[in-house]
């Protein structure tokens, strides 16, 4: 992702919101087709006001919104000519994507589109090579060429009728190598960025949820956009929600961004179109942390100086405009951070979380000693009085001006 647009809002919204269970309720709760597809006959989000969504994203410091135009259920959230199973044939009957695109344009928010490869409604869609094909209607009648034509027709609508599109988020790799799809997308929107869940490697990769598993703190080699939902169990609206802790989400975002990646944080709006205030508050609060970082999460490079182990804990060092930023993505467990090596004496040390200066000194720290002699090692750069207990749910970022 281009460096200035690092933080985005993922929105999973469709007829499944009425179940208040999960976006894949049709498969995961094993509903039958009639029961599931009847949700289209009652979808009537009278309180839908996309500006509410866009303004929340803005407040959180987000620069783009990625919207589910068609999830695995095959239901289309725009006015498409290529299937009747779409928003125009609900009691609501309005193009919700168009309304969102207009709200984004009004508020300077970029728009990205999610599009699922699996389609549990289109009769030709079955593709045995791909996962998530559980509910495809005709497992004998899958026909990639016919389904591909349908997808290209829909993509033409999506990429010509809704203004500039920032990224295209394919979901679930079809495991069919075919570069012509992404080439076609680029011919319609030359500046677009495409993820790696389509028919070729695309522009960016999409680690999901388990950021802890990504291990090392080395920077990403390929453009990367991680994604996660505020709800552990679902991307669509779920009443019986299990929220991730702020600490977990903020750590995840800080770590991904310090490694050079972008981050999509998901919320699932309710069936009436509104955001559950408690869910929205989660986005807002993560955004409060993000905004305190004052842009240090964007456009930075790796700081390759080896500061050695730090008493504060695990960190990733970045630099921007001549300053070093130490990202303690899991927080700091004590009130000081002692750096073993340092290129010189800092001019100033600042805690990004509060904007306040921190005290520092080059000094002996008695716990770092030579095991053979019992004598303290050389002077460390000792950054002190960090208000860690007030920041218990935050990743901590320290700015050093040299
Ligand atoms: C997974 C889920 C899907 C969700 C997507 C978001 O693929 O199966 O429901 O839309 O993650 O990245």
What can you see in these coordinates?
The chain is an alpha/beta fold and 402 residues long. 21% of the residues lie in helices and 18% in strands. It has helices at residues 25-28, 33-37, 50-59, 96-106, 144-160, 180-188, 246-258, 277-292, and strands at residues 7-11, 64-70, 110-116, 167-171, 193-194, 225-229, 262-267, 301-302, 316-320, 323-328, 337-339, 348-351, 359-363, 380-384, 396-401. The strands form three sheets. It has a seven-stranded parallel sheet. Strands 8-9-10-15-12 form a five-stranded antiparallel sheet. It has a three-stranded antiparallel sheet with strand order 11-14-13, with no helix packed on it. Helix 5 runs parallel beside helix 6 (180-188). The longest helix is centred in the middle third of the chain and has 17 residues, at 144-160. It is elongated, with a radius of gyration of 24 Å. The model has no long low-confidence stretch (mean pLDDT 96). The protein binds alpha-D-glucopyranose. Alpha-D-glucopyranose binds next to loops.
């Amino acid at each position: 992702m281009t460096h200035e647009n690092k933080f985005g809002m993922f929105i999973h919204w469709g007829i499944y919101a009425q179940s208040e269970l999960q976006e894949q309720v049709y498969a995961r709760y094993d509903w039958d087709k009639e029961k599931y597809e009847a949700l289209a006959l009652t979808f009537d989000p009278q309180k839908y006001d996309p500006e509410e969504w866009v303004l929340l994203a803005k407040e959180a410091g987000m620069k783009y919104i990625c919207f589910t135009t068609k999830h695995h259920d095959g239901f289309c959230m725009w006015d498409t000519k290529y299937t009747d199973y779409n928003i125009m044939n609900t009691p609501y009957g309005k193009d919700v994507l168009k309304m969102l695109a207009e709200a984004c344009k009004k508020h300077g928010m970029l728009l990205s589109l999610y599009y699922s490869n699996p389609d549990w409604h289109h009769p030709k869609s079955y593709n045995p090579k791909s996962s998530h094909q559980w509910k495809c209607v005709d497992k004998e009648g899958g026909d990639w060429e016919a389904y591909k034509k349908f997808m290209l027709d829909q993509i033409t609508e999506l990429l010509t009728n809704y203004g500039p599109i920032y990224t295209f988020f394919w979901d679930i790799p079809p495991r069919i190598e075919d570069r012509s799809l992404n080439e076609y997308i680029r011919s319609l929107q030359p500046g677009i960025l495409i993820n790696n869940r389509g028919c070729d490697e695309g522009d960016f990769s999409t680690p999901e949820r388990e950021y802890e598993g990504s291990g090392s703190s080395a920077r990403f080699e390929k453009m990367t956009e991680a994604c996660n939902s505020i709800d552990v169990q679902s991307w669509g609206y779920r009443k019986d929600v299990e929220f991730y802790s702020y600490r977990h989400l903020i750590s995840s975002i800080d770590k991904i961004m310090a490694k050079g990646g972008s981050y999509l944080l998901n919320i699932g709006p309710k069936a009436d179109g509104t955001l559950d205030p408690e869910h929205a508050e989660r986005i807002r609060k993560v955004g409060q942390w993000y905004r305190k970082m004052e842009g240090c999460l964007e456009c930075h490079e790796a700081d390759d100086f080896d500061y050695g182990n730090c008493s504060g804990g695990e960190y990733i060092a970045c630099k921007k405009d001549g300053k070093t930023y130490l990202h303690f993505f899991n927080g700091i467990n004590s009130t000081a951070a002692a750096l073993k090596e340092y290129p010189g004496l800092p001019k100033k040390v600042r805690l990004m979380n509060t904007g306040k200066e921190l005290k520092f000194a080059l000094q002996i720290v008695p716990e770092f000693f030579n095991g053979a002699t019992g004598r303290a090692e050389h002077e460390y750069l000792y950054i002190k009085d960090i208000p860690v207990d007030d920041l218990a749910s935050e990743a901590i970022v320290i700015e050093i001006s040299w």
